[in-house]
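Fold it.
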Amino acid sequence: MGKQIEHPVGFLRRLAKNQAGNTLAIVAAALVPLAGMIGGGLDISRGYLSQTRLQQACDAGVLAGRKLMGTSGVLSDAVTAEVRKYVRFNYPNNYLGATLQDADIVPTVGTNEQIVLTVSTAVPTVIMKLFGKDEMAVSATCSGRNDYSNIDIVLVLDTTGSMACKPEYTATECSDWIAAYRRGGKKMTVDNKTVTYVLEQTEGTTNISRMEALRTALTNLQTQMATIESQFNMTEQGKRKRVRWSIIPFSQMVNAGFSRGTANTTLYDRNPGWFNTTGSYKETSCYSYRGQIYCSVDKNHNNLAHDSTWMTNIWDGCVEEQSTSNAITSKTSTIPSTAYDMQYNTVPTSTATKWTVADPSMTGTAQYACPKAMRELQPMTATTFNDYFKLTNGFAANGGTYLDIGLLWAARLLSRSGNWASDNPATYNTYPVNRYVIFMTDGEMDTGSTGYGAYAQEFTWKRIASNGNATTSNTNHTARMLITCAAIKNMASTKIYTISFGAGSGLTQDLIDCSSGAEDEYAFEAANASDLNNVFRDIGENIGSLRLAQ
C-alpha cells in the first residue's frame, strides 16, 4: 500500500512547534553587534596608538623649536620649520592612514616665551566604517619652555689624601701606595703660604690620580654650563640670567678664612669679627701598642692670642668650628641650642658662635691638613674656574674624611636667612634661581680621633662623641651629615647630587639618603675617570635643559 500524503495543515502545525533551527537564526542575528564590538575595539586601539604617537611628535616639535629659538623669543620661519620637521619625522605621513599637513602644524608663542602647539588629524577606521563611522579624530597639545633659570652650583669636593691615588685602587692599596714611597707630607708654597699635600699618582708622565680625573670632569662641566650661560645673554640687560659657582674643598677642615667672594677679598678681611683670634689648644702625642693607639695631652695652651703678624704671615685660613654639643647621635636627633655649628643662620657675635683660627703648631704631633680656600657664590670665567683647580695653585690632596664639614659650609653659603642671605636672592632679573649642590667623595666617613680637625683632637676635646672614640665619632659625624643634607634639601629650589668615586669607595645608603632622589637620578657611583666624567655630564644635562611645560 503506498504512503499516505499528509495533510498540509498538520505539517505546518508541527513546523511551528519545532525549535531545532532557532540557534542558527540567533547566531546570525548576533553577528552584527559582535562584529561592531570587535571592530570598535580594533579601531579604538588604532586611535590610541595614533594619539600616543601624535603627542610624542608634538612634544618633540616644541622642544626642538624652543631650542632653536634660544633667547630671542621670536617665532621665526626657521623655528616654525624646525617644529614641523620634528613633528612630521615623529608622526610620518600616512601613519595608520592619517595625514598631517604643514597647515595642521602651526606653533605659537605663549607666556614666558613658551612655544605652544596643538595638532589634529583623523585616523580612518577599518571595521567601524561598515557601521557609518569612517574616521576618528585625534589631537595633541603641548608646550615647550626654556627652563634655564638662574643657576647656582655649589661644588663640595673631597680633597683628602686618598684623592692622590688612581681611581682603581682600593682604600688599602691607596694607603699602601702612599706609605711605600712616603708620598705624603710634601710641601709647596702658594700665595706665600706653605701647603702640605700628597703626591698625585702618575704613570710615566701622565697624571692618573683621582684629583686629575676630577679636574677633567669639572672642566667639562664648566664648558656645559658656559654653553647654557651663553644662551642667557639676551640683548636686554634686564632679561639676562646667570650661572654662579661656589667651591668648597674639604678634608678634616674647611679653609673659610681665606674664602673669596665677589669683592675678591677674604672672608676674614671682610668680617674679622666672625673669628676668634684667641683660642685654647692642646699639645697631644700618640703611640701605637699591640694594634691600639694611645694618646696623651702633653700641654695646654689656654687663651692663646694671635697677633696681626701671625694672622698675616702664618695662618693658613682654616678654622675650628663654633661651639657644639655631643648630644647629636642620630639623624633624628633634636639639635641642642648649644650646637651653634648646626644652626646655619647663627650670626657670629660671641666666642661660642665665632670660628676659631686653626693653629697646628700648638697641637703637638696631631695630623693636620688644610685644603684650598673655598670660594663663595660668584660668576666665574672658564680661565678663573680651571685655574682654581690646578695643583700648582694649591688644589691638592691631603687629610682625613669629614664628610659633614663640607656640607655644613654649603648650608651656610646657601641659606637665605643666614650670614650670606644677600648672596642668595630668590630671583635675579625677575627669573627664579635654582640651586644645586654636587657632593663628591672617594671614601666613607673616617675622622679618626687623634688628628687635628674642625673639632680639634676629638679623643681629648670630645666635642662630637662623649667618649672620644673614633667609631662613635664617625657615627655621630654621619648623623650630622644627614641632618645637614635634610636642611639643604628643605631650602627652596635646592637639590643635592651625590657622587661616590673610586674603587675604594661605594655608593652607601647614607649618600643616597643625602641626595635629592634615587640612585642614578641624584646619587651616582663612578668607578673610574671615565665614569666620573659621564656622571658630571649627566648632572650638567639635568641642571640645564629644556622642559615640557605640559
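The CA atoms of residues 94 and 100 lie 8 Å apart.
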